[in-house]
Fold this protein.
Amino acid sequence: MARSFAEKYKQLPKSTSQERQLKTVAPVHKTHDLNEQDRQVIRSFWTSKLFSDVYLSQDLPAKHKDVWENEELDGFKNFVSQIESLAIEKKLSNPEKWNETQTIDYWIKRVMEALGWSQVSGDERYIPEWTFTVTQPGGTKSSLRPDLVYVNNAEEIELLSDDRRSKDDRLLQARNDIILVLEAKYWDRLQNYQNIVDLGSNEDKKRSDVKPDSASNLGPGGQVLTYLKHLKNDVPARNHFGIVTDGKTWRLHHVDYPDSKYYEFDLGDMVSYISHGFLDDVGSRRRKVFLEASKYFYHFFSKEALFSPSGQELLLDLILKKSKKYANDIEEDLRKRFISAMTLTCNAFAGSKRLPTEQMILIRNCAESFIFNLLFIRNCEAKGVLPQSPEYRPRSLSYLFDCIDGLHRFDPQKTPSTNEQSLKESFKGDFNYSNDGSEIFKKILHLTKTIHDGDYGLKIKGFKESIFETKELTFIEKAPIPNLEMLKIIFLLGFTTPPQPIPGRRFQQIPYASFTSRQLGSLYESFLEYEIDYTDSKIEYTGSDWKTVNGLHPFSWRDFPAVS
């Protein structure tokens, strides 16, 4: 379970008593005013398997400043005010005991009101459990019943509720009039969904108020995608996105993507921050972080974000397109970086001695397995296969990536001594960094073993099958890679130059969550096209390209001869 805001912020300075006098929305602040510690806390509230996480964290605030930095927009300002009030009310409640209907009535409808979708009373623009019938390919009829559907105008509710019309007429009307489908669960059910079968009578009790439909046997994402499939409209654009929520966790799905691809925000964690009294004054650091985190909820789940009366392209549509293009554009660059990383890894394992052919083949295979292991772990973390818990986080590969992407960044174009001073700050909470140490290499090997064997304390079941052959692992364990070389390898695998300039950054993390299985397979296959060999001159990687220098370099790459 994610840490509460109270735990995340216990290390931050508190405001003075004078600073606590005001409780209004903060004046406009710029995203780059936040430091790296602030950014990491903000990043902990959301995960994305639908959009590129790199685009969301870096490009979105920089390229859409007109929306992102304007905290005086009426919709956003109203959301902040209402969510603060709701957080105080929630503190006096006990949502863990709510069933599904109570979660919808006491919390979800109220949050949706704050997001601009409807008034809870007086101007209702939603229909609870709206039922419609569809005919399956085999001719069988299925009854579907989303928990909530929203419309733009209150009079459309009467039209959609008219049971005298044929099912085809009602469905056609719905595709034009329904602007959002929401599937709800009882409080905090989504994070525990995989273990739900073990809850027995408690699960039955919390769901005794629920009327099943033809999609109820699917997972939460499968349910909302089933509804979207039948309600999607292209002209004007309607119901391309849908929401699944248990009140605490909110997920955004897209009709053209599988149920495993979604954007997720932990609203329960954010409101805990409010209820612990962390908002302080309008100019406080904590409030700035709260407002920035709120944008990653409001600009993805609000009516303003998900509905256009004219059907014109939404910002989220643009982000989705950019995310796909992001991964495609970076694929070739990443292929080159993988080859460079292989060269560095081979050299690190080989040392300075000229080796016989048999030993060279072993080193090549060890380097390939080592690089692919890093790729495998990074991809599993990016796509949520490995846990996102605070217990796992300090051991993760993502943590290493963030350490060298933080305030004290690793820069391959700086001298080793300059990097060493910066990196001492980055890792001072973990170990005493030196370029010649091997702590990073050992952390990666320990992480590999944990993922292989499993660790129930970290909620890792274990993959059991290893990427490494026994002789490869035996060799690698006896050939530790120095920290500086290890960071060069990680940098090559994890960072690239932004397609377009980002203020204050020359490099950005590679969005592994956006890569398809085909792309990752293609990257791995590129390894098979090369073999290692000696060169007559030494080459060094400068962070952007290779250059020839004096001396002898043990390994280079050459095209593998074609098999006739």
